[in-house]
């Protein structure tokens, strides 16, 4: 102890407190128990109690030093326009941002993949339930048919249910078709080729068309119109010369 005091006296400097800023605090009062914390109250093996005692001691030292600094007119608060340069460069911070962004995107992708797997699992479950229900209905219908064939039952309710379900499906599909209507391609073909129906015998006469003689022309019917010449009213057609005559005409032209 004497040697330590001697060493302390050798390097000790008599400076003002504002240059040293050393604060010695005594026993710190615990605000919860309102009792002075001594060495016996703090268990050194308990990390939480030990750190809390350090925290309370540092807080008491700050509360003691701040009034002394205000008396000496030393500013203790940072001004609003204070600019502190970052310890890391912008390039390094940009790399950190990109890394954090890539991690976040990877987490989002994994979350989406989990959701897709859950949806597929749920869809598969629903599909299996539907298949099981259809198999059950089919089995019940086959059992009912066997009972009816053996004469154990005279009810045919399952056929009525099947017919009603099929009719309901047909009505639903027909209503959907009516509601939807034909597309543009179908409408163009209908306009060009007609709507189907009877083709054979479509030009047969009816009673009304047989009695209608408004389009009858006697001159045309008896070959007496303009442009008709020759015996018996036949057309004076220009007859093509034969092969020998054509060959003679070619030889003369040469």
TrEMBL record:
It holds the Pfam family Ebp2. Required for the processing of the 27S pre-rRNA. Keywords: Coiled coil, Nucleus, Ribosome biogenesis. One of its GO terms (biological process) is rRNA processing. It is found in: Nucleus, Nucleolus. The gene is Ebna1bp2. Residues 164-176 have a biased composition (Polar residues). Belongs to the EBP2 family. Residues 115-124, 177-190, 231-254 have a biased composition (Basic residues). GO terms for cellular component: nuclear periphery; nucleolus; preribosome, large subunit precursor. It comes from Calonectris borealis (Cory's shearwater). This is EBP2 protein. InterPro entries: Ebp2. Residues 98-126, 158-254 are annotated as: Disordered. PANTHER family: RRNA PROCESSING PROTEIN EBNA1-BINDING PROTEIN-RELATED (PTHR13028), RRNA-PROCESSING PROTEIN EBP2-RELATED (PTHR13028:SF0). Coiled coil: none annotated. Residues 102-114 have a biased composition (Basic and acidic residues).
